[in-house]
Amino acid sequence: MRKTTRYPVEGSTSLWQVYKTVSFWKIVKCFIVIEIARITPFLSWKNWMYRTFLRMKVGKRTAFALKVTPDTMFPERISVGDDAIIGFNTTILAHEYLVDEYRLGDVIIGNNVMIGANSTILPGVTIGDGAVVSAMTLVNKDVPAGAMAGGNPMRIIYTKEEREARRR
């Protein structure tokens, strides 16, 4: 189960009430920074923008590929460790707005993690150190350290021990 906090709403849908939960100007700022970073070819610039303007925790030598989209409303809830690779066009969400509630959850991506292209990471998920997530995966639950995961819905393909055994 993902680690999210639920906030019920009354009246219209939760997304219709979005500016009660997050400032319009914060969303504007995040949107502009993310759109610039998505097309910036310089990895160090992206990391600097994410750390400085979005308050994301981004480790040393982490590589966000072209078109990666961190959460536009709560990017400060995203943490990425050292030497991680986030593949092309991946989306990292820390929120989800539903009809009668919205949910927030921290996303923690460990050190030496590889996320394949076109993946979506849902709120409240932890991806352990050394894990590999294959391309086009919906990460809807935690990925243990060293494991390889993939698919939609995601499943564990190899545990850390099985991956190490295959390398021998």
TrEMBL record:
Sample GO molecular function, one term: acyltransferase activity
Top-level taxonomic group: Bacteria
SUPFAM superfamilies listed in its UniProt record: Trimeric LpxA-like enzymes
Record's keyword annotation contains Acyltransferase: yes
Any single Pfam family the record assigns to this protein: Hexapep
InterPro entries per record: Hexapep, Trans_hexapeptide_repeat, Trimer_LpxA-like_sf
Record key words, sorted: Acyltransferase, Transferase
Keyword Secreted carried by entry: no
PANTHER family registered for this protein in UniProt: ACETYLTRANSFERASE, ACETYLTRANSFERASE YVOF-RELATED
Protein name: Acyltransferase
